[in-house]
Specification:
The protein is mostly helical and 280 residues long. The protein has one domain. α1 crosses α3 and α5 packs across α6.
């Protein structure tokens, strides 16, 4: 037991150190949420999310890290030798833009699966149980979720493009800031971008408690795949719904962090018709 705790402590310190440049961005985002909130912040949840973020990441690394690294070592990397092709700045930019485009596509399908496959939903519920989605929600994921992501996102990206290893700073920055931005609880709209990228208002629809918003807006970077596969819902200018899971909030929601689902929420979701939907 002391060895296990010592191992977890070491992993936790590493995770906290790795987040050093990320915390100021989150703090600035929360400050704007205080000054220009879309909805009043639910501070107990925000504080719980902030405390859980490094703990959840560290627990996931401690439990899954060795197994995922072992599997990764047996994957054929950069199958089409695109890393070797990217010898100029322009090609490097194209390579990593392609990486983000592939990530966007793979994440869309993982995200849809998390809402359609019951046992995946049991773990994804941790993220959706937030009573008022805000910037801090970005780190509110089940600590075992990376295990699912590995097979659907990480492994394919390693095979196709060599994975994230060696990525330029702008790629990591974009992914990190985008996660905060899309969950941002602010009374701000972003003009024409509201129809193309995943803005806070657009993603909040995905977290909405309202039935008409269920199974919409799965995208992570762009609205492209929501457009293509008929899951896009463009919110009206004054549309900013409540979020969470009915009947599951407060301390009870954190019971979902168990390695197996202790709480089952049976939501009867009526299949939505395909096609683009607009609140405008």
């Amino acid at each position: 037991m002391p060895d296990v705790l010592a191992h977890f402590s070491g992993v936790l310190h590493g995770v906290i150190a790795g987040l050093a440049d990320w915390w100021p961005v989150l703090a600035a985002a929360v400050l704007v949420e205080v000054l220009r909130p879309g909805r009043r912040l639910h501070w107990p949840t925000v504080l719980a999310n902030v405390v859980y973020l490094p703990l959840g990441l560290a627990l996931g690394v401690a439990v899954l890290g060795s197994a995922l690294q072992s599997m990764q070592a047996h994957l054929p990397a950069d199958l089409f030798a695109l890393r070797a092709w990217a010898t100029t700045s322009a090609r490097q930019f194209a390579l990593w833009l392609g990486y983000l485009a592939c990530f966007d596509f793979l994440y869309y399908w993982l995200h849809r699966a998390q809402h359609r496959v019951p046992w995946l939903w049991r773990y994804h519920m941790v993220h959706h149980a937030d009573e008022n989605v805000s910037a801090s929600t970005v780190g509110r994921h089940h600590w075992l979720e990376e295990g699912f992501r590995f097979f659907i996102i990480t492994a394919p990206l390693i095979v196709l493009l060599g994975g994230v290893a060696g990525a330029p700073l702008w790629v990591a920055t974009f992914i990190g800031v985008n996660g905060i931005f899309m969950h941002w609880n602010v009374a701000l709209r972003f003009g024409p971008l509201e129809h193309w990228i995943i803005t806070p208002a657009y993603h909040r629809i995905h977290h909405s408690v309202e039935h008409r918003h269920w199974d919409r807006n799965f995208g992570v970077f762009t609205q492209l795949w929501d457009r293509v596969f008929g899951t896009r819902y463009v919110p009206a200018k004054d549309e900013y719904p409540s979020t969470g899971i009915a009947g599951l909030g407060g301390v009870r929601a954190w019971a979902l962090l168990a390695p197996w689902p202790l709480i089952m929420i049976h939501e009867e979701k009526t299949p939505l018709s395909t096609g683009e939907v607009s609140g405008q």
